[in-house]
Amino acid sequence: MKVGINILLFIFFFNLAKGQEKEKRFELGPTLITINSLSSTYHSFVDKPSIEYSNGLFFRYNKKRFAFRSTVSYNESYFKYYAPAGCFDCTSGESINKDFRVGVGVQYSLLKRKDVLYIFTDLSYRNIFSSGYVYGGLAGLNNSFSSSTDGVDGLIGFGLKLKLFEDIFILPEVAYNVFYGSVNYTTAHLLYGEAKRSHYIQGNLNPVAKLHLTVRF
């Protein structure tokens, strides 16, 4: 009797483990590339580079046609810009930027029998710390500056889930990024050292593209 019960228990747990093995719902991997902009036009201040490489982690839990997502990223960048020729009131300068984001989101597969095409939305907390120098302009700037920004990033877009190997996928995504944040800005003249502080709200909207690589388990 005990032998029969043990056999039944073995068959039950074996089938359970086999069923769980088939349902691999978790995915984890790096964000290989983030494209923030392809523009090379003049900017007096940029808080993120045009392209970021291997700057974050991507996690996803799949449940039928829905999936719950989580992202975390950190990037450090250096930016230097020059006043265009003939622009007397334009400035030159440089900045070092540290950008941290963590967020969650949800996605939905548009095809009933395949999860190759999906739409998604993410909401993230974003913190940026920047410091650098500003020179020139009609005011004759010769200043250092630092700024700290706390804000919210929102993404809405669509993506593809493409299989590379068994349980290994590549996920290209295109979306619109909406940012809204509070900036604390401090500037001081390099010679006189008179610090001036200001606070303002910053918002922007721009397209972005991302490429994730995930392993399913």
Mean pLDDT: 87
Strand arrangement within the widest β-sheet reads 1-2-3-4-5-6-8-9
CATH architecture: Beta Barrel
Global outline: elongated
Helix content bin:
under 10%
Structural class: mainly beta
3D architecture notes:
The protein has 217 residues and is mainly beta. The protein has a single domain (24-216), classed as Porin. It contains one helix and nine strands, in the order H-E-E-E-E-E-E-E-E-E. The chain has one helix spanning 2-22; strands at residues 26-35, 51-63, 66-81, 91-109, 117-136, 141-160, 162-165, 168-189, 195-216. Strand 2 and strand 3 form a beta hairpin. The two termini are 38 Å apart.
Quick overview of this protein structure:
The protein has 217 residues and is mainly beta. The protein has one helix and nine strands, in the order αβββββββββ. Strand 5 (117-136) and strand 6 (141-160) form a beta hairpin.
